[in-house]
Amino acid sequence: REARGTYDAVVSVEMLEAVGEEFWPVYFRTLDERLVPGGRAAFQVITMPHERMLASRNTHTWIQKYIFPGGLLPSVKAIEWTVRDHTRLAITRREGFGAHYAETLRLWRERFTERADEVAGLGFDETFRRMWTFYLAYSEAGFRSGYLDVQQYLCTKEDLAR
User: Fold this and answer.
1) pTM (2 d.p.)
2) How far is CA 2 from CA 57, 72, 102, 119, in A?
3) Taking the CB of the first residue and of the last residue of the chain, which one, N or C, has fewer CB atoms within 10 A?
4) CA-CA distance, 20 to 27, in Å (whole number)?
5) Whose CA is closest to 26, among 105, 85, 66?
6) What's the pLDDT tens digit per position in 76-117?
7) Going by C-beta distance under 8 Å and a sequence separation of 6 or more, which residues neighbour residue 1?
8) What CA–CA distances, in Å, run from 105 to 93, 97, 99, 141, 144?
9) Helix (H) or strand (E) holding 91
10) What is the Cα–Cα distance from 117 to 125, expressed in whole angstroms?
11) What are the φ and ψ backbone dihedral angles of 6, each rounded to 5 degrees?
12) b/e per residue, 31-48, with b = 16+ CB within 10 A?
């Protein structure tokens, strides 16, 4: 939101989840404002079903307390509505790949666990290591069960000169 200048393209990876629902319009307006006409924005975002997003938006979960304070996973509907209502961007492509992301999380968790001594050497204590291992396993389970998904979007800004 503090970026200046204009760009032909912008890429954002898993940022939307952390900014909080109240700032989703600002996030998307900033993408819109930073793009030149005809520009493209690609972003990757972890999503949950819309009904689950609505049910959990006012709760204080373990993830919100320890991993993403103030964050909320959006739904595909919430993203589409926010882009439509607050920008001149058009969603031109969307792809989900949650099952693949579950495998990525499994690999991250295994590699993190295998390197516990190295992580400890960097100053991260046992409590942190257990918490991070739990977070990776919890997230993996969410993707494997279909409770979570990860989407990649491509948005384009209309070239008004055409």
Assistant:
1) 0.88
2) 26, 21, 33, 33
3) C
4) 10
5) 85
6) 999 999 999 999 999 999 999 999 999 999 999 999 999 999
7) 23, 26, 27, 30
8) 25, 13, 10, 9, 10
9) strand 89-96
10) 10
11) -125, 155
12) bbebbeeebbbebbbbbb
Q: pLDDT > 70: what percent of the chain?
A: 98
3-state secondary structure of 146: coil
Helical residues (DSSP H) of 48-97, grouped into ranges: 50-56, 62-66, 76-86
Residue pointed to by tokens 């993203």: 79
Which residue shows structure tokens 């739904």?
75
CA distances, 42 to each of 14, 53, 58, 61 (Å): 11, 23, 29, 29
